Amino acid sequence: MRRPCKASSITGLPRNFFASTSQGRLLRGVVANVYDKASVILVQLFSIPVLTTAWGVEGYGVWLVILTIPTYIALADIGLGAAAGVVLTRHIVGRDYEGALRTLHSSCVLLLVSSCFFSALIIGISNWYLSGGHLVGGYDQGEVMLTVVAIAGYSMTLVQMNILIQVFRSTLRFAYAMVFSGSVIIVEGVTLLSVALFGYGPAMAGWAMFACRVASYIVFLLILQRRERWVVLGISHANCATIKALAMPSLAALASTLATAASLQGMTLVLAATTNAPVVAAFGAARTLSRVPLQLAGIFLRPALVEVTRAVAENNVRLQNKLVFANVTVSLLVTLPFGMLLIYFGSYAMQVLSNSQLEGAQSLFIPLACAATFNSLWASLTLPLAASNKYATYSYLYLIFSLFSIALFIIGPWQSAAVAATYGMISEGLMLIYILARISTKGFR
């Protein structure tokens, strides 16, 4: 039986890069996450000048709206990915591979059913909306619907791939999964930008991305099965008892996903309904810049969550607390300096990236920078709760705050990108205050 990892100093990480210890895995996970997050950031940043030039500001705004689909189809996960990851880790720690397989198959059954339902719902709503003669930039209804269907298929494949990433995470191969994920993102990004530069529209871009994701899923599964012989894709080991055991933490994790979707993509949709495509494009580009520090802080958060989950399973409280402290420190060091730079130079950066087609005032970047800092801090502090499947202690409240901010924007007298960002900042600030108050009275229980 594997002994619990000792909580040696985080400063010793460089000496243990190749060691099979918590510190070694954490450092490898951080490096792999750097690659994965850098891939996301580069694709997002290069997309702004290429797509605004190839499709125009309105075309880019339409594409951003359609790209909200993966966020909502990800709801088909209904929180199972996060909850199953914790349970899988417990099974692996105890070498209960039969239990791990039951968890995997039970998750696959529910994911297949729910993702089909969510995809059909989104396609139906999109068709109804477009049939009403609503403006969709410079594209006709057929072009937009083809794009919606393609991105829906892409999103379904992405949901299925995420459960395989949980298996990699639980078997201490998180770094490998992140390197593969980052490589796929680069391939998809290059494909997207190439399609646009060759003069094709969003529909062709969407179908090309779908094809890339399906191919990567097949390769990913074959690699996993070769490394973990107990992994068999299917539904034969699924049972109702396992699904029921995952239900409560899964619903709580779903609430957190819904809250994120509401605060990010939900506000984009509301802006699209109340303003116009150029405003949506400016808000989307500015928010992409503001979330760069979150991507950077997440470089440490994601592998740290893997190790915290294992520390909780092994009752290693000392290592758990060290990882939380280290993650909060990293979050502050990343988000505060970047936030100041964004406030003073964000407008200039957005103009450069968009070839002067997009503009954003300082009043837009101030709340976006604050929201990113608040989010990074409270997410870092909730690591032990997430690692224990205790999402319910904060996720439902986050959902309430996020929906309330959207409601205030809708009924408010002003609808602009800066106002939308301000409401988002308030929501994140309230969450930070709540988490700090809870930890001061109850700790991480």
Structure description:
With 445 residues, the protein is an all-alpha fold. It has one domain (21-442). Helix content is 80%, strand content 0%. Helix 3 (80-93) packs antiparallel against helix 4 and helix 10 runs antiparallel to helix 11. The longest helix is centred in the first third of the chain and has 45 residues, at 22-66. The model is unreliable at 1-13 (pLDDT under 50).
Q: Percent helix among the residues?
A: over 70%
How many domain regions?
1
Structural class: mainly alpha
The tally of beta strands, per DSSP, is 0
**Rg to the nearest angstrom?**
21 Å
Strand content: under 5%
Q: Helix and strand succession?
A: HHHHHHHHHHHHHHH
**Average residue-wise pLDDT:** 81
- Measured distance between first and last alpha carbons: 28 Å
**Biggest sheet, open or closed, and with what strands and sense?**
none
What are the low-pLDDT stretches, counting only 5+ consecutive residues below 50? 1-13
Q: What count of helical segments does DSSP give?
A: 15
Shape: globular
